[in-house]
Amino acid sequence: MTRLHSRPWPAALMLGALSQALFSWRLTTPGKLVFDEIHYVPAARVLRTLTEPTNIEHPLLGKAIIAAGMMLFGDNPLGWRAFSTTAATAVVMGVYAILQLTFRSPRTSLFGGFLALANFTVFVQARIARLDGFMAAFVVLAVAAMLWAARGDGRAVAWRWLLGAALLGLACGTKWAAVPYLGYAALAFLIVKRWRPKAWPGLGQLRAGALLGVGSLLAYVATFAPAFFYGADALTWRTFLPFHAEMYARQTQVLPLHPYQSSWWTWAFDLRPIWYMYESVDGAQRGVLMLGNPAVMWGGLVAVAACLAAAVRHRDAKLGAVAALWTGSYAVWAIIPKSLGFFYYYYLPSIWLAVVIAAALHRFGRGRLRGLEDGVALLAAMLFGWFYPILSAAALGDSQAFRRWLWFDSWL
Question: For the range 327-335, what are the long-range contacts, defined as Cβ-Cβ under 8 Å and sequence gap of 24 or more?
Fold first, then answer.
């Protein structure tokens, strides 16, 4: 295992293979549409036939990816969810890449990637046909690509930066919640360039801004290509902007109260998760709870505070950057104009917690704290094993079996 910790590529491949296998195991259970699959799978069916616009409150790309899975594997649970598993594996590998590019430590990278894998949110999103998983994968890979560009030279810098911009455009073409990351990317470039002029060598502010804007915009517009071929109400260049106005109106409309709604400030504390399913299906009582791993969710908050403190006291730019990544990803939900909030909006911030914890222990996990990495990883793995039955739709004993895993009344 020590040799694996010192070799980045074998460790990354092992982590990716483990993630894909875990996400794919018993993927077709439950054998019916779950939670928001009732919206996105029918929309993907319509998109396959290019009949007419449907589910127009969100862009097309996520539904097109679901449709592609159905074309490959059939209109069945495997087809609905297959590419969700690959998106989640991309998230885990992206976390590994971000940490490796930042700290050059395979051990730290493997630890952070494992925490992303063991954080329940990634596992649950990997096994359901929803848009958030695809959006998150594009954002995480975009961050990795832009860090990769910072360590490049010659033409590679511009091409890698452009790749990151295109990935952000694809993220926005999946769900508009990714739009703030375009601003974060521009701001991060300006700040890092000021502190480390040698980062992104040869890439100036104007060129970086142009590549970011043009690359993301072209990628975003390209995701709407199928809409130009609808049999009815096909999109045209003249109706492109009015169509976006209609999307915005639908996304900001006032919705009726929902039993699982929650305020944005509660998400970080794991106070109000969502039951994606709890019913008798496929011959047994089964449940899927969208919940965060307490070791990652609560430990991550401690890590954020430690990283912010180190950034202020010791001018540690790396720890400040990873703390800012989580903070910006989370705080934006305080101003996004949504009439209702749900815990799954915290999906991307929950991913960054794995990065923050790994970064904090890379910096502080010495002396009296030596071995804390292993302890956190073991605790996260044990909690994952304990909660696995209600994360994976495994067969439960009876209709009251869920009480075994309820730590708080608010989890009901």
Answer: 328/180, 328/184, 329/180, 330/264, 330/267, 330/268, 332/180, 333/264, 333/267, 334/264, 334/265
Beta strand spans in 72-138 (E): none
Distances (CA, A) of 397 to 162, 210, 403: 52, 58, 11
The contacts found for 269-273 with CB under 8 angstroms, 24 or more apart, are: 269/297, 269/298, 269/301, 270/294, 270/297, 270/298, 271/408, 271/410, 272/343, 272/410, 272/411, 273/343, 273/411
Q: What is the pLDDT at residue 6?
A: 55
CA distance 20 to 347: 19
120 alpha-carbon distance from chain centroid: 12
CB 180 within 8 A of CB 332: yes
Would you state the structure tokens that stand for residue 292, as one six-digit string?
Answer: 């965060």
Q: Which residues have a Cβ under 8 Å from the Cβ of 116 and sit 6 or more positions away?
A: 91, 92, 95, 122, 351, 354
On whether the CB atoms of residues 198 and 206 are closer than 8 A, the answer is no
DSSP assignment of 256-271 equals: PP-TT---GGGGGGT-
The larger pLDDT score, comparing residue 1 to residue 135, is at 135
Tokens of 412: 């009901």
For β-strands 284-290 and 274-281, DSSP reports them as: antiparallel
Encoded tokens for 241: 């902007």
Instruction: Write out the two tokens for 401.
Output: 């079996």
Give the contacts of 136 (CB within 8 A, at least 6 positions apart): 87, 91, 125, 347, 348, 351
Contact 74, 108 (CB under 8 A): no
- How many CB atoms are located within 10 Å of the residue 299 CB? 21
| Lookup result for tokens 């790396």 | 318
* The predicted structure's pLDDT at residue 334: 87
Which of 52-56, 82-86, 335-339 has the weakest average pLDDT?
335-339
Q: Residue 122 in contact with residue 76, Cβ under 8 Å?
A: no
CA 141, 147, 149, 152 dihedral sign is negative
Pair of tokens at residue 13: 């491949």
Alpha-carbon span 336 to 160, nearest angstrom: 30
Are 351 and 97 in contact by the 8 Å Cβ rule? The answer is: no
Q: What is the pLDDT of residue 252?
A: 82
Among 117-126, 223-232, 244-253, 360-369, the range with the most confident prediction by mean pLDDT is 117-126
